[in-house]
Design brief:
Layout lengths: L12 E12 L2 E8 L12 E2 L2 E3 L8 H13 L5 E10 L8 E9 L15 E6 L13 H16 L13 E2 H12 L5 H10 L3 E8 L5 E7 L25
Length: about 250
């Protein structure tokens, strides 16, 4: 077979899907799009994860496709992106044998402008706590979203991932709040501060106004292209309230 010849077998549909997380109104949320409710569309009118087909003329790689799809929906160019995994089967899409390569992204809610277009009638944030209630997501996106949520919460136990949910500069109390929202439990303030400063992934950015009107040191990430890895996980403290004083 020469270059450009069609293969002698049917090719699967190939897509990239995104699980985009943010923290909004004190809740961990993910981005969903509403599929068109027209004849011939698979899963008409259902909510789904954003994504779409790989465009061989535009996308040099899977991650470039993910970045393109993310920008189309949020206007964000360079968030935290991590490949979650691949799903594929004969039955996951009624249009035929389908495989999807999934990435999850973390973005600050501030400044994000959600965009419709393509095959989306609407786009909206949904709290992750509501995933198991109401109508199921299209295709196998419920399974994918839950896998991404487990991956995120597992990694937050020992990495600096929640920092990507904040606009820089940010204070340590703001960072702790992100950890507590994602993990769903409070963390000890003193131990948290010690761990963050000892990890070596933050640089001081001057004082900011704190939540209690007292100045608090602001921080930026030393390197937005990687996460810090802690030597141990956080230990939950039952009954301890979160301390968000700035």
């Amino acid at each position: 077979m020469t270059s450009g010849d069609a293969p002698g077998f049917a090719l699967p549909l190939t897509t990239v899907d995104l699980v985009i997380f943010t923290v909004l109104e004190g809740h961990l949320q993910l981005l969903l799009v509403e599929r068109p409710d027209t004849s011939g569309e698979p899963c008409p009118g259902q909510w789904a994860l954003p994504g779409g087909f790989v465009d061989v003329l535009k996308d040099d790689s899977l991650i470039s496709c993910a970045r393109r799809k993310l920008f189309e929906k949020t206007g964000v160019k360079s968030p935290y992106l991590e490949q979650l995994g691949s799903w594929g089967s004969r039955t996951r899409d009624p249009r035929g044998w389908s495989s999807t390569h999934v990435y999850f992204a973390l973005i600050p809610a501030k400044g994000v402008e959600l965009k419709t277009g393509g095959n989306a009638r609407a786009v909206a944030w949904r709290p992750v706590d509501e995933l198991d209630s109401g109508s199921p997501l299209a295709f196998d996106h419920d399974e994918i979203a839950q896998a991404a949520l487990r991956r995120l919460r597992d990694k937050v136990e020992y990495t600096s991932l929640p920092a990507f949910l904040l606009v820089e500069p940010f204070t340590l109390p703001q960072l702790q709040s992100m950890y507590e929202v994602v993990l769903g439990r409070p963390l000890d303030k003193s131990a948290f501060r010690t761990r963050m400063l000892a990890a070596g992934f933050l640089q001081e950015a001057g004082f900011l106004a704190g939540q209690s009107n007292r100045p608090a040191m602001g921080y930026r990430l030393l390197d937005r292209n990687k996460t810090a890895i802690f030597p141990r996980t956080f230990s939950p403290r039952s009954g301890a309230p979160p301390d968000n004083e700035g």
